[in-house]
From TrEMBL:
UniProt cross-references to SMART domains, sorted A to Z: IG, IGc2
GO BP term, example: cell adhesion
Keyword Cell division applies: no
Any Pfam family matching the protein: ICAM_N
Signal peptide: 1-23
PROSITE patterns in alphabetical order: IG_LIKE
Name the record gives this protein: Ig-like domain-containing protein
KW Signal (keyword) present: yes
InterPro entries per UniProt: ICAM_N, ICAM_VCAM, Ig-like_dom, Ig-like_dom_sf, Ig-like_fold, Ig_sub, Ig_sub2
GO molecular function: integrin binding
Residue ranges annotated for the Ig-like domain, each copy included: 117-215, 227-307
Keywords from the UniProt entry: Signal
Length: 328
């Protein structure tokens, strides 16, 4: 058996493009055929491929399969290539035969050697700790030792919501480290959400397996925002009857949790809760109540103007109901 390893000047690694490639010389009535037509192999795994050199046009020993690694066996006009551990990133396969006219008819097969990321991590660029609502921050997904990086898709997530898909601009066969960034503007609804990134090697149809996926850790977000009142504004004047119960609601939300300070009418005791309750209102409770809500982000105020009216229920005094005589 003769296996010819001929230097093909016109064929270099540039042949390792999409799927099987043949030299379209009109003198060639047929071309070698690889099975499979493209090869996807994890770095360090075994691999094999066969090449039917020709059906009728090759004669004698003027055909073969050229490769820098592995073992080549011949069975008639079929070349069988195997390798126990594929660790050569620049592996190529060129199957050829020579015609009687001295024309060389060749085919190559696309070989994708991949390596999933050794690690994937997520962080904020130039930032640690809490975030503030409506300010822009940059998420960074760092991918270590992945190949080929041009086949990598990185997706940023907030919880289960995908925020964006990114791909590398560079092309490398060998493993590289790559960093991907995405700008975000958090709102109060995002407080407590978890950010993370997912990497997926899109290796194409030659492989029936799912794309290798590696995810980062979860990065919890603390979003600080100023107080927001839960209840709508009050009318200019709140009218209440003497003796009734008065509720002044100043409840609000905010992060950090807000504190309350009340400015009450003269000689009224101080209060620091979110809802001010007076069980039996008197005329001494008339006036303006100002609730100030604040945290480290901001401050809001709410005003209540209280007008106390006389109780309209008649008073019974010595058998007289407000001037009406009643027999008892």
């Amino acid at each position: 058996m003769f296996i010819h390893f001929i230097l093909l000047v016109s064929y270099s690694l540039t042949f390792l493009c999409t799927h099987q490639v043949s030299s379209f010389d009109p003198s060639c009535t047929e071309f070698p055929v690889f099975t499979p037509s493209a090869l996807v192999v994890k770095y360090g795994d075994p691999a094999n491929v066969t090449c039917v050199v020709c059906q009728k046009d090759c004669r004698g020993d003027s055909f073969g399969l050229e490769t820098p690694v592995g073992e080549v066996r011949q069975n008639g006009t079929t070349m069988i290539w195997t390798v126990d551990r594929l660790t050569e990133w620049d592996t190529y396969l060129i199957c050829y035969y020579n015609t009687d006219d001295g024309v060389q008819c060749t085919s190559t097969v696309d070989i994708t050697i991949y390596q999933p990321p050794e690690s994937v991590s997520i962080s904020f660029v130039n930032h640690t700790g809490m975030m503030f609502e409506n300010q822009q921050y940059t998420l960074q997904c760092s991918v270590q030792n992945v190949a080929p990086v041009q086949n990598l898709t990185v997706t940023f997530y907030r919880g289960n919501t995908a925020l964006g898909h990114l791909q590398a601009n560079s092309e490398h066969k060998k493993p590289v480290n790559e960093t991907f960034t995405l700008n975000i503007t958090p709102s109060r609804e995002h407080d407590g959400a978890q950010y993370w990134c997912e990497t997926k090697l899109e290796l194409g149809p030659p492989t029936s397996q799912r794309p290798p996926v590696v995810t980062s850790e979860k990065l919890p977000a603390i979003v600080h925002y100023g107080p927001e009142l839960k209840e709508p504004p009050n009318p200019d004047v709140i009218t209440i009857t003497e003796g009734d119960t008065l509720h002044l609601n100043c409840s609000s939300v905010g992060n950090p949790s807000p504190s309350y300070t009340w400015t009450l009418p003269t000689n009224s005791p101080s209060y620091s809760g979110s809802v001010l309750t007076i069980k039996s209102v008197g005329f001494e409770h008339e006036g303006q109540y100002i609730c100030t809500v604040s945290n480290t982000v901001g401050t809001v105020t709410k005003e209540f103007n209280i007008d106390v009216q006389v109780n309209s229920i008649p008073y019974i005094i010595s058998g007289t109901i407000l001037g009406a005589l009643v027999l008892v």
